[in-house]
Amino acid sequence: MLIYESQVPASYRQEFIDAVRYYANKLSINPNWLMAVMYFESAKTFSPSVQNPYTNATGLIQFMPATANELGTSINALKNMTAAEQMYYVYKYYVRYKSKLKSYVDLYLITFFPLAAGKPLNFILQTATLPASLIANQNPVFDLDNNGQVTVGEIQKVMLNKIPASWINEFKKKRY
Predict the structure, then answer these.
(1) In CATH terms, is domain 1-96 a member of 1.10.530.10?
(2) What residue stretches are annotated with the Transglycosylase SLT domain (predicted)?
(3) Domain definitions of the chain by residue range
(4) Average pLDDT of each block of 10 consecutive residues along the chain (176 residues)?
(5) pTM of the prediction?
């Protein structure tokens, strides 16, 4: 049994779990990591059509429109796929970063802010065109000290704190 498996709608649970295991194996990562990221990103629904009304990010890992296009699809196509079908695009997104997927937090960082993967805990999320304050304002859940900046350490703390205690050891391990 995978983490949050019981939260996947029964109508497509087995097909979806099979796809998660298949693609996690291809990525050489723990399938529980994928499940936890998708659970968080899909607002606990595992719905391929869930959409952020502010950014139009869509699906299991909240694909941004530009990212969907880079992957050869669109957010409209993604939201009309089954969850199992969308797993191909989840894989296609992550495989570009396969060498950086060394932990659950790395997998989440690749999802949320790829530039931060592998960086030290005090690394502040920002770019030349995306100020730290904007990232913090749009993602207050991660700005734990309310200083207008989000660090890798803050994201690590938040994401690990969301994992049920009975599962935490699975999420502290490195890649297998």
Answers:
(1) yes
(2) 20-78
(3) 1-96, 103-176
(4) 98 98 97 98 98 93 98 98 98 97 96 96 97 96 98 98 95 74
(5) 0.95
